[in-house]
Amino acid sequence: MKKDDQTVTEATALHSFDAMLTTYERWAQPCSQTFSRAALDGAALPVGATILDVCAGMGALAVPAAELGHRGWAIDVSPGMIERAAERLKPHAGWSTEVMDALDLHFGDNEFDAAFSVLGVVYFGPETGTALEQMVRVVRPGGVISVVNWAEPLGATFFIPVSRAVDRFDDPEVGKFVAPLTEFLEGPQLERALSGAGCVDVRSESVSGHFAVPSAEIFMEELDSVFQVLPQYRAAIAKDRDRFRDILVEEVLLMASKELPPARANIAYGRVPTPQETVGSSGLATS
User: Fold this and answer.
1) How is domain 1-151+186-210+261-275 classified at the architecture level of CATH?
2) What angle do the packed helices 79-89 and 10-18 form, to 10 degrees?
3) Which end of the chain is more exposed for a tag (fewer CB within 10 A), N or C?
């Protein structure tokens, strides 16, 4: 994957997520945790299951999983995120955290009952399949694999005013806003990814939630570290920060005067085939 492709790699995530810890916890963590709880509900695991949370961030899935009585590991490439996840998991026995590359899981085969990745490995572009295969490898036959991704190209609701402000800035050197997400935005796409990684009994569902957006007075300062991943945002700030800020404030105020649209995501689930099953090239199980 290349930075020019606007896909998120493990290397770029290491720097960007460590730089936005406080902001992420305040504004992004609630979204991730809502979708994580929905994924856990949909997986219907027995109490006491052993879970691997891949690209765990601050433990958006690991923490509610621990509250449900599960145990396991939370791994992420970002040291800052994993440190915060470890703090949040301290009250819960049976959980470990580690800085680890999702493309090279340091676990043996069949170690877990389930593996989840919420807003994580689906950002790896061509390497998404490799990450999913790693998840399948470490989950026992019959176990669950689940991935979550946004259902909209913008992702979180607070990107809406930024996209509109970039277009209103109307500078040829900045260009029009380009949505950061382009892949796996539909349930069937997620299902095909799981099937391609070797899962069977694949299905998906849509979830949504309403989340707060910061006030215009703090919007730019509060979320600047998040928006730095967007090339058009960086270009507009570099060109004329004050003018762009004024436009952005207007868009935030306009958005605040209306009913906010819900943030939408898709959750896909698959099962690791048992030894009695074989998976053909189509991804369909036969016995």
Assistant:
1) 3-Layer(aba) Sandwich (3.40)
2) 60
3) C
